[in-house]
Design goal:
By secondary structure, the protein is of the alpha/beta class. The chain contains 25 helices and 16 strands. The strands form 4 sheets. A 5-stranded parallel β-sheet has the order 3-11-10-9-8. The chain has a 5-stranded parallel β-sheet with strand order 13-12-14-15-16, with helices on both faces. Strands 4-5-6-7 form a 4-stranded parallel β-sheet, with no helix packed on it. The N and C termini lie far apart (80 Å).
């Protein structure tokens, strides 16, 4: 075709109907609806979104607070990596080093630190940086008290700005069912007068997130807590503008990229509506939206820890796209309780790459305009508003926490997440799939904080205990016939066993009873899995079970695949232990299997 002819070529404009026809053809009889997926929020996601899915609202005004003022400015968020050291001198040096490498926020931990002269020197030594402070640790009232006292005697500290405080509702009442807010309220009022530019009323949804809550729940609980705090401080004589100016909201960003992005965007819109309902001028509402995000700890694993780098990278990306004021990226090894200079630097550099190399600090609402993102933002916000109204109609956040309603709702989602992970409906690389049985948890202390991987880490600790006693958990895989006929199942079984820290050894192709017996004599394992085609099992399984029993009465044999229930019952009568198959509860099966080697060492 000539160039002139190519220039005159045109294509029909795309339309949904044409796509549906093409998709149905590719699906070979399955409906397009089979491509829909559900989320833990009860939202059904389509494979394709069009302009018709856009919500009927002013997107720019809804999701980009202060957009008119920001168009000509840099969208710089604060890199709030939490620095933790053993002494104030070490903390001072570590923070100064972090600042020289790109950190632009004084974010630090005071856990196990004494509020003495060392703290005073630390504050005075870092005040010259004129960077915002950021500390939302649980029960950090002692930090706020000390800083407030210093500010009363040192006018230069009255200009300190940033975020210091904690959320008693999510951090205490959520776990205990109740908490006394009077003392917290009085301290917050007192600190606020000494530190007028510090946000001291924190709404922290991370405790809900870390117990499995979905995005809709996190948003609804944030709105309900915000309304509760408005009521409390209005009784103290504060105006709505004063209260809104002191509120800061903190989220965790999980692994569902677009859901987390839409969650933060939806919060901005609904929170603006809530502020307006208190009589705050719509234009003023924009300045009162203060948000920080931390990468999720809930979905991080102590197994194959470097995979956490990939998880945090995606979570930080979604947070930046949603538009946040502060961002905390946890080091990949933080679940172990100890971090290294390498992991801290890698975490900080994730943010620097997003800003300096991806230039996301120079774009207003990078995700704006996406049919999918705009639709999902509206859907998440709508569902969260409905849940907020339910909570309000039934007495509010404090009452429902006392009744256990909130805890029960979150626990239902957690149970669903665990069930999906244990049956591999959801994957966690290095933990429930593609696990490395050599991976060690030595040096990783068990934590009170819940994480999805904990049941699998518990399995691996059992396997390590068995190894330390001198009995290596290892299983034999008996491959029936040609390699191509048993390899798919053998690979699946090997991966399944690795999740529990059990090594596996695949036999040479077995064609006779003698081949199977030779493999057993060669390996002498207490447990074997037979892998082959279903039609081969009728003749092979009774034979192998009999052979194993004669070789050693304690040997246990499983078959790979979900087998016919009637046949399975008959084979179990003959001595078959059970089977390994997809969608099986891995945790239950692997816990049962590890007892084989625990009994061997007795």
């Amino acid at each position: 075709m000539k160039l002139s002819e190519m220039k005159n070529q045109s294509f029909d404009p795309p339309n949904l109907q044409a796509w549906q026809v093409a998709a149905k053809k590719a699906l070979k009889g399955r409906s397009v609806e089979s491509l829909h997926t559900g989320t833990y929020e009860g939202i059904e996601l389509k494979p394709l979104f069009t302009q018709e899915d856009l919500p009927a609202n002013d997107r720019v005004e809804s999701y980009i607070p202060g957009v008119n003022k920001k168009v000509s400015s840099v969208q710089e968020w604060k890199i709030a990596q939490v620095i933790k050291r053993g002494t104030w001198d070490e903390l001072t040096h570590a923070l100064q080093a972090a600042i020289s490498r790109g950190q632009n926020c004084l974010s630090f931990s005071v856990e196990d630190m004494q509020m003495d002269e060392g703290f005073d020197n630390f504050i005075h030594g870092t005040a010259g940086e004129n960077l915002p402070l950021f500390n939302i640790e649980k029960n950090n009232a002692v930090l706020a008290d000390r800083l407030s006292s210093l500010a009363d005697s040192d006018e230069s500290l009255k200009g300190s700005h940033g975020v210091i405080g904690y959320d008693p509702i999510s951090e205490i009442a959520f776990k205990q069912g109740d908490c006394q807010l009077d003392e917290w309220t009085e301290k917050t009022v007192a600190v606020s007068s000494s530190l007028p530019h510090i946000k001291t009323i924190i709404i922290n949804t991370t405790p809900y997130h870390n117990q499995g809550a979905n995005a809709v729940q996190e948003l609804a609980y944030a709105f309900s807590t915000g309304v509760l705090y408005f009521d409390i401080f209005q009784e103290k004589g504060w105006s709505p503008e004063e209260i809104a100016g002191k509120i800061h909201v903190h989220f965790s960003a999980g692994s569902h990229f677009f859901m987390e992005l839409s969650k933060i965007r939806a919060f901005k819109k609904v929170w603006k509506d809530i502020l307006t309902s208190y009589g705050i001028d719509k234009e003023l509402c924009e300045r009162f939206i203060s948000i920080s995000v931390e990468t999720s700890q809930f979905n991080k694993s102590a197994l194959d820890r470097h995979v956490n780098l990939l998880r945090t990278g995606g979570e930080a990306f979604s947070a930046v796209l949603s538009g946040v004021d502060f961002l905390v990226v946890h080091p990949f090894d933080s679940v172990s309780g100890e971090t290294t200079p390498l992991s801290e630097r890698a975490a900080r550099n994730i943010q620097l790459i997003l800003g300096e190399e991806a230039h996301l600090n120079k774009v207003i609402d990078p995700a704006g305009g996406s049919y999918y993102v705009e639709w999902l933002t509206e859907e998440v916000g709508r569902k969260a508003w409905s849940e907020f109204l339910r909570i309000d109609s039934e007495g509010g956040m404090a009452d429902l926490l006392k009744k256990g309603d909130i805890q029960e709702s979150v626990n239902k989602v957690l149970e669903k997440r665990l069930a999906d992970l244990s049956t591999r409906s959801q994957s966690m690389i290095g933990t429930n799939i593609y696990a490395n049985p050599e991976d060690s948890l030595i040096g990783v202390e068990p934590s009170d904080d819940y994480r999805l991987s904990l049941p699998f880490e518990k399995l691996r600790r059992r396997a390590e205990e068995i190894r330390r006693s001198g009995e290596k958990p290892a299983a034999g895989i008996i491959g029936l016939g040609e390699l191509k006929s048993h390899k798919p199942r053998a690979d699946f079984v090997s991966g399944f066993l690795s999740t529990g820290g059990i090594h596996s050894h695949l036999s040479r192709p077995c064609f006779t009873k003698e081949d199977v017996l030779a493999f057993m004599e060669e390996t002498n394992y207490p447990y074997y899995v037979v892998c082959g085609r279903d039609e081969e099992y009728d003749s092979w399984l009774p034979l192998i079970v009999e052979t194993a029993g004669k070789y050693h009465s304690q040997i246990k044999v499983d078959a790979a695949g979900k087998l016919n229930e009637e046949k399975m019952a008959a084979w179990t009568q003959l001595g078959l232990n059970g089977c390994i198959h997809r969608n099986q509860n891995m945790l239950e099966k692997l816990n049962d299997l590890l007892t084989i080697w625990e009994e061997e060492k007795k």
